[in-house]
Design a protein that fits this description.
About 35% of the residues lie in helices and about 20% in strands. With about 325 residues, it is of the alpha/beta class.
């Protein structure tokens, strides 16, 4: 019986949901504006061979101690715009993950959404649930395939019961798959993975101390990370996916992939080899259910410091990933 049970576990992992090979797109325009600029970027994403798109929308908090969450006056798109963008992505054959996140308007050194400390926790949870339920209803109406109930909220992850309640509340209004996205250094502390369908984490690992790393250096750096993630995934008896893997086009991108504000020089090649190292490390890993590359939003001139791979050598590595994953 133990042998049969073990076989079943292996079979379940091997027969996990189809691979998720996606690209993220931030929606950073306010209001009910023309969607043509988004439509263009969605078309480009579909042409890479991606199967999925992650659409990022945000509401904001004044600072990490605030207890209310509200639409940002400049960068929260209207519901109508968001709905039209989802519809266009679906017409291009892309499955959609709606990914609402929190934006902290005023931040001190080291402050970000992973370090929230609301003055009134009960009020914060009520406000957060209202924020999430708002977008869950929109996701249901627009037929989004996956919905995120949270991203990188490390300091709030200790409240397991709160998250379980939020997941239950979302399921009452949304019928698709649920995901939570942990920060790359905090995923083992999450105790409510049972409440969601998909296990997610970001992938902004420091891979080197060098400003001029080689492919071999970066692949070697991924090996212990991969070993750790595989062990953790087996312990959960769930596959996992990277909700964000991205590198700015900067010297030192492999050192601090989460920091696009360093002011260092343009380095398109380092961005490219970071993606190549990720591809070489993870392409055939069965415990990895998928990835969303971060972030298509940005100019397409191919000469900017942004995360976007548009018009850059890094795009070739993403296309190789998509091709090997079987859509094209």
């Amino acid at each position: 019986m133990k042998f049969i049970f073990a076989l079943c576990l292996v079979f379940n992992v091997a027969q996990a949901s189809p691979s998720i090979n996606g690209i993220a797109l931030g929606l950073y325009y306010k209001g009910d504006v023309d969607t043509s600029r988004y439509d263009e970027m969605i078309d480009e994403i579909a042409d890479t061979g991606a199967t999925h798109i992650s659409l990022i929308t945000l509401w904001s908090m004044r600072d990490i101690r605030a207890s209310t969450i509200v639409p940002h006056p400049l960068e929260t798109p209207s519901d109508a715009l968001l709905t039209r963008v989802i519809k266009h992505a679906k017409t291009r054959g892309l499955k959609v993950m709606l990914f609402p996140i929190l934006w902290i308007e005023t931040r001190g050194d080291g402050e970000w959404r992973g370090k929230l400390a609301p003055k009134d926790p009960s009020a914060w949870w009520a406000s957060y649930e209202a924020f999430i339920i708002h977008f869950a209803r929109l996701a249901q109406k627009a037929d989004a395939d996956i919905f995120s109930i949270g991203s990188e909220l490390s300091s709030m992850e200790q409240f397991q019961g709160r998250w379980t309640d939020i997941a239950k509340a979302v399921r009452r209004v949304y019928s698709g798959q649920l995901i939570y996205s942990a920060n790359w250094d905090h995923y083992e502390d999450v105790q409510f993975w049972h409440a969601v369908d998909l296990v997610g984490l970001t992938g902004y690992y420091r891979l080197t101390e060098s400003m001029n790393p080689s492919i071999a250096d970066l692949v070697q750096a991924w090996r212990p990370i991969k070993k750790s993630l595989r062990s953790w995934s087996k312990g959960l008896n769930k596959t996992f996916l990277f909700t964000e893997v991205g590198y700015p086009s900067l010297d030192g991108a492999a050192h601090s992939p989460w920091d696009y504000t360093t002011g260092k020089k343009l380095d398109l090649e380092e961005q490219r080899i970071c993606y190549e190292a990720f591809r070489l490390t993870w392409q055939n890993e069965k415990r990895l259910q998928g990835v969303f590359f971060w972030n298509w939003w940005g100019p397409k001139d191919g000469r900017n410091h942004w995360y976007t791979p548009r018009g850059k050598p890094a795009l070739g590595e993403i296309q190789k990933w998509m091709k090997a994953s079987g859509r094209k």
